[in-house]
Automatic annotation (TrEMBL):
<dbReference type="GO" id="GO:0003676">
    <property type="term" value="F:nucleic acid binding"/>
</dbReference>
<dbReference type="InterPro" id="IPR036397">
    <property type="entry name" value="RNaseH_sf"/>
</dbReference>
<keyword id="KW-0540">Nuclease</keyword>
<feature type="domain" description="YprB ribonuclease H-like">
    <location>
        <begin position="85"/>
        <end position="233"/>
    </location>
</feature>
<protein>
    <submittedName>
        <fullName>Exonuclease</fullName>
    </submittedName>
</protein>
<dbReference type="InterPro" id="IPR012337">
    <property type="entry name" value="RNaseH-like_sf"/>
</dbReference>
<keyword id="KW-0269">Exonuclease</keyword>
<dbReference type="Pfam" id="PF13482">
    <property type="entry name" value="RNase_H_2"/>
</dbReference>
<dbReference type="InterPro" id="IPR038720">
    <property type="entry name" value="YprB_RNase_H-like_dom"/>
</dbReference>
<keyword id="KW-0378">Hydrolase</keyword>
<dbReference type="GO" id="GO:0004527">
    <property type="term" value="F:exonuclease activity"/>
</dbReference>
Amino acid sequence: MRIENSFIPVRGVGEKTERQLWESGITHWDEFERSAVGETTADRIETFIAEATERLDAGDSQYFDTALPSSARWRLYENFRDDACFFDIETTGLDASYADVTTVSLHRDGETTTLVRGQDLSAERLRDHLADAPLLVSFNGIRFDAPFLEESFDIDVDAPHLDLMYPCKTLGFSGGLKRIEKDLGIDRDRPDLSGRDAVRLWREYERGDDEALDTLVSYNRDDTVNLQTLADDVSSRLHDDVFASVCGR
């Protein structure tokens, strides 16, 4: 489902009205007809379409992130997926006031970069990777990864952010990332490793075990790359549930 199929960003248009528009055959901004709604709503929709078309042409994801309800943020994915930045962090604990970020993996344009504490993990490098991303994608990143990075490196992680934990819950999938991957049939090289192992591996690396760092980096990269597979799956399922179930496509 693309942003151009959406009418709920318009003030006064909720899911019920949007669904009625779709059922009447108006499934895209280009198909809008004033007669489908009242005069006031028609004016608002036409004004929105005019501005939104320009904003979309300009790649202004922030505009749509603000306009869409948070529960519909997944609709950003189809339009901005090609340049989205998937990211995941590993830490030595759950509180940034005492714990450290050990690795950060970022997957974008088919390439994955992992930044390591004490090597190349810095505020400057993080800003370089995150600054121009139109959409960030994570799992539980709104509550954990993003604020942890902000506190640890004094940076702003303020790009539109699709946290897959929430659309997964909408679809009935609960638990952590690895549990949901298993439920959806998404494979990884080391399914036996967990966040607790990530802390252990870092401590072993600090004691001189370079192979432990290699394993930690591989684990972190798996988390990050799998986010794209998960996002593809989740957005496809939501498309079917929300849009295709009404429009048949």
